[in-house]
Amino acid sequence: MTADTATSAQSQPFQAEVAELLHLMVHSVYSETDIFLRELISNASDACDKLRYEAIAAPDLMADGTPPKIRIVPDKKAGALSVIDSGIGMDRQELIDNLGTIAHSGTKSFLSRLTEAKDGAGLIGQFGVGFYAAFMVADRIVVTSRRAGTDQVWVWSSSGGSGFEIAPGSEEDEKRITRGTEIVLHLKEDAKKYLETYEIERIVSAYSDNIQFPIELVPEEGEPRQINSASALWQRSKSELTPEDYKQAYRAIAGAFDDPAMTLHYRAEGRQSYAVLLFAPSTKPFDLFEPSRKGKVKLYVRRVFIADDADLLPAYLRFIRGVIDSEDLPLNISREMLQNNPQLAQIRKAVTGRVIGELESLSEKEPEVFTKIWDAFGSVIKEGLWEDYERREKLLALSRFTTTSGEKRSLKQYVEDLKTNQTEIYYLTGESVDRLKSNPKLESATARGIEVLLLTDPVDAFWTSAPLDFGGKPLKSLSQGDVDFGLIPLLDEKSQEDKDKENPGADEAATIAVIKDTLGERVSDVRASQRLTSSASCLVAGGDGRDRALERLLAQQNRGVGTKPILEINMRHPLVAAIAGASGDARDLSFLLLEQAQILDGELPEDPAAFASRLNQLVLRGLKL
Ligand SMILES: Nc1ncnc2c1ncn2[C@@H]1O[C@H](COP(=O)(O)OP(=O)(O)OP(=O)(O)O)[C@@H](O)[C@H]1O
Predict the structure, then answer these.
(1) Does ligand 1 have an atom closer than 6 angstroms to the CB of 260?
(2) How many distinct structural domains can be found in the chain?
(3) Residue stretches of the annotated binding site for ATP
(4) Rounded mean pLDDT of 452-457?
(5) 104 lines ligand 1 (CB under 6 A)
(6) Per the record, which residues fall in region C (predicted)?
(7) Is residue 89 located within the same domain as residue 207?
(8) pLDDT for 313-327, tens place per residue?
(9) The domain that contains 304 carries what CATH number?
(10) DSSP letter string over 539-577?
(11) Engineered SS bond to 89: which of 147, 398, 400, 414, CB 3.0-4.6 Å?
């Protein structure tokens, strides 16, 4: 800091995203502005949590004896509402960094959605935009703050627009603020209702009753009074709590706006004691697929907040929100200790088991609610099939699939409906259900009424790459290795016999020899297909090769090893039958079999121009032009 910045006011621009967000907030006509207060109280509560945590190692920070608390002060004469906390506070740089940029990745992706969406305003209500929400109700905001343990007070102020000012606090500011942050909102004309005490009480009881720290309303007349219950809800007994209490707790803890689809509240006693209050949301957050895959369950030790990134659940359960409050862990546990702590590992294991058990029982007792969770988070839960070997069977049983027989099918249902002599569970991976439904690799299965799982999530290509079985029935890809449906009867045996008589098929050995000779290195083998009934050809991976969908996905990321596929041909197809006797055209026909199989798999032929010219020539010759 230069001598200049220490004594004078400075203007600074907002990060471009903040300016954009503020512009959107000011210009959208959004009716549910109440959320601004919830956001400010939630920040104030986080600041009190941080103070209590830092004070474990540095008790001096709280030596003045003021307990962490939050005060709300309306001032009708000035048209201003203040939210004041005695939490950790911010120094100059923290004010600049925290209130001038958006670090939160969820907010960033929310912002891009907000800009794209026609009804951006509707989205504001669904997702927190934190501190900046205050600009919906205020045309000027002044934040005065003192970092706990420091001498200086700093004042951040802004009227929205493109930037803010930062200046050292006055003597009067220094007297008033001994620790923490005061946020003064100069309310817009149409937001003056927030100066009424009943409005403030209404919002606090709706959104912030579960905040652990006391929230005090300081009215213009009369004594200050506490307006929240300030208890750690997870420590209370289940019988005292109503569904509404849980809903509010979920919203307060998770900073969410939806309703929880699942609530898990219990106390573990025994080798370790801890309270657990966890929720599964009913809607998907925007940052679910962030590469960091961080969980959001908060760790408390004896009611003191410790960390919200302690990986208390495996990454595939990162959508679960809530709190775990341990009685036994040391309060001064450091971040490094969190990672290797055996007690925490035990808690993690036990709680993971409980969450999965709860999902299981929900899937049986309240399938519609479970479906909601599966629709929002199924693609994340499936990461566990790949990562959590121990619980793979349980997770497979939980999984729901779109199949050729219907939607939301479980493997239990699949196995109950197996066809005569069917001993395997079949699946096909690809980009969309519609594309998969028209994939020729389904033909022979369809002719036998065999159900096939249609897997379209990117993660499906990964978990299916490890050998898996369900109830002793192996899962098998229809685009990989040999499939033998020989023992499974056709739905319509007779018509197949007729077809066989009409079309006895090509000379297998001669045809395969011609195609192999033509395609050479382009394929690893050419085989007569068991999969096809009406299409001429398809591409499959070898028995130990990677599934074609995974191969394609890796190739997109330049991680493919380029294993060559096997070309399967339908010996009864007239095009295939024509090859052995087609002398001059045999070469073009062979290429065409390969290229149409590539197109049906959603790939481009290696040389699209050559493909088009080959096709044109064959058509012209067919038309004898
Ligand atoms: N009252 C406060 N005391 C101390 N720090 C604060 C306070 N209010 C905000 N901050 C700091 O400013 C940062 C940004 O706040 P903001 O509300 O925009 O986002 P957030 O709380 O981090 O994320 P989100 O609201 O999206 O969950 C906070 O992370 C915190 O570091």
Answers:
(1) no
(2) 3
(3) 39, 43, 85, 90, 98, 105-106, 126-131, 181, 335
(4) 96
(5) yes
(6) 553-625
(7) yes
(8) 999 999 999 999 999
(9) 3.30.230.80
(10) EEB-TTSPPHHHHHHHHHTT----PPPEEEE-TTSHHHH
(11) 147
